[in-house]
């Protein structure tokens, strides 16, 4: 009888280490040969297509990371541009396998729209941008303003809450797409444009003269942005969750696209070995092979590399990293351990 606890523990350990069974979403992805990823129609830094039709941005790289893990090739992604009102319907209906569309994780979206969020990939907050020539220096001076805002976004409700709380009046000019909302503001149809701070910075780069616009100092909300998947497929949820953990964890461990092959030969760090496929086989628990996370780093890079390219000092947006620094550097970005 004294051996029973040992037997039970061993049995539970065997169950925990068992390989995952493939879910319906993973089966569909493998059958068609590419990942369907819902992205923003135009969000510089997150997702936008260049003149050759190539998609670029942080959210695009999250999609690429999942494709690298599942299909072995980060380029096997079909990007589906979605306006805000379409995104959750597209996910629920199976039009896309996942959303990586700078979307705010809220209780309503996570609990009642058939979706489940996987991780926070960018900590943001809602703000306001105005033309400098209207001489407004604070959001508290916007009483009576006409505000451009995109429909189907959390920005609409936050805007109403902020103005009501500060006993100010406003009039909205609402559009279905990012491009229409941005164009309306830049053409002077409204006094102010409100959305996430990162989007404001991205929109300003599209102006003929970006120096004519000023982002006001107030941040009026918490906007944790991240990828989401369809509720009900635990296996694919786990794949996307741990693909992002590998993407971020690589930065924590100093593993980059440039040095990952050398580390495969030389690293004796068990955490690094598990991440780059030379240690324990972590992929089998996800229904993937041993090199799933190595491919993410080799083909896509790590989170910090994406941040520097799309938001850093040499990018068009030139944003401070702020809360999106690693936790070891005073930020909130913290990868769940792969072990």
Structure description:
Helix content is 38%, strand content 17%. Residues 6-12 have low confidence and may be disordered. The protein is globular. The chain is an alpha/beta fold and 339 residues long. The longest helix is centred in the last third of the chain and has 19 residues, at 234-252. The protein has a five-stranded mixed sheet with strand order 4-1-5-14-6, with helices on both faces. Strands 10-9-11-8-12 form a five-stranded mixed sheet, with helices on both faces. The protein has a domain at 125-222: D-Maltodextrin-Binding Protein, domain 2. α3 runs antiparallel to α12 (292-300) and α9 packs across α12. Residues 34-263 form the Solute-binding protein family 3/N-terminal domain. Belongs to the bacterial solute-binding protein 3 family.
């Amino acid at each position: 009888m004294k051996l029973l606890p040992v037997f039970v523990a061993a049995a539970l350990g065997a169950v925990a280490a068992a390989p995952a069974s493939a879910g319906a979403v993973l089966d569909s992805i493998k059958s068609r040969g590419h990942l369907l990823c819902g992205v923003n129609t135009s969000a510089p830094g997150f997702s936008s297509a260049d003149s050759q039709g190539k998609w670029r941005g942080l959210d695009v790289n999250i999609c690429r990371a999942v494709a690298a893990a599942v299909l072995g090739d980060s380029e096997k992604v079909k990007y589906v541009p979605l306006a805000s009102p379409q995104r959750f319907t597209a996910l629920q209906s199976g039009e896309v396998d996942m959303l990586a569309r700078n979307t705010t994780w809220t209780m309503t979206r996570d609990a009642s729209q058939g979706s489940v969020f996987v991780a926070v990939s960018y900590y943001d907050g809602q703000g306001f941008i105005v033309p400098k020539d209207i001489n407004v220096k604070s959001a508290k001076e916007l009483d009576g303003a006409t505000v451009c805002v995109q429909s189907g976004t959390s920005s609409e409700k936050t805007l109403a809450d902020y103005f009501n709380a500060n006993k100010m009046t406003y009039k909205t000019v609402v559009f279905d797409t990012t491009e229409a909302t941005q164009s309306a503001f830049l053409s002077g149809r409204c006094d102010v444009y409100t959305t996430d701070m990162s989007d404001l910075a991205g929109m300003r780069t599209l102006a003929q003269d970006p120096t004519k616009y000023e982002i006001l100092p107030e941040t009026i909300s918490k906007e944790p942005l991240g990828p989401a998947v369809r509720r009900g497929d635990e296996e694919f949820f786990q794949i996307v969750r741990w693909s992002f953990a590998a993407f971020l964890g690589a930065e924590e461990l100093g593993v980059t696209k440039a040095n990952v092959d050398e580390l495969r030969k030389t690293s004796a760090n068990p955490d690094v070995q598990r991440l780059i496929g030379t240690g324990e086989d972590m992929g089998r628990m996800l229904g993937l092979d041993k090199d799933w996370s190595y491919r993410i780093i080799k083909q896509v890079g790590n989170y910090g590399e994406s941040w520097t390219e799309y938001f850093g000092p040499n990018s068009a947006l030139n944003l401070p990293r702020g809360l999106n620094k690693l936790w070891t550097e005073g930020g909130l970005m913290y990868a769940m351990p792969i072990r």
